[in-house]
Amino acid sequence: MATATKLEVLDAKGQKAGSVDLPESIFAAETNVPLIHQVVTAQLAAARQGTHKTKNRGERSGSGVKPFKQKGTGRARQGSVRMPQHRGGGIVHGPVPRDYSQRTPKKMIAAALIGLLSDRTRANRLHVVDSFGIENKPSTKAARDYLAQVAPGNRVLVVIAREDEVTALSVRNLPFVHVLFQDQLNAYDVVVSDDLVFTKAAFDAFVASRAAKEDTK
Which residue stretches belong to region Disordered (predicted)? Predict the structure, then answer.
């Protein structure tokens, strides 16, 4: 079993309210940059719709009759106004619908995420908060002020538990914040964020899920 280090848990006022263990298997792993690049590229490729399509000459509307006679005009011979060189004609070698997704093994996806989390931890860009101090009613202003105090980065990834609806509603309209549930955490959203802010409930759930997966190996 890997050893663990500690990370402070901040309360609603930004003060220390305890600590959590950081398992080395998750937060002190080697950061493999080529692997991260491959996983992030595959994730972006899978998000592409691939519905692009252009019409070839057979799909363009227009007459198939020769636009002018074959000989005697001094011009190059033409067979149809739907040919690519004519305005409104077909497109040559244009894009067609395709699937951009790449097969990426689950172990590679997990290793890329763990490597990124470890990198953010070493850079002191990982934060765990007890709560945002927002009770019952969502408040975007309160969430903005709290994040400005806790996470100094320009782009912040907030990771919350599934049942934390108040926090989700409070941060979702902040332009510099992206919010995810702990089971949605992925390499792309981590790599494009400067700071990661976990609520303690989300952090505990994420670490527990990772430990359960390691136990099943």
Answer: 47-100
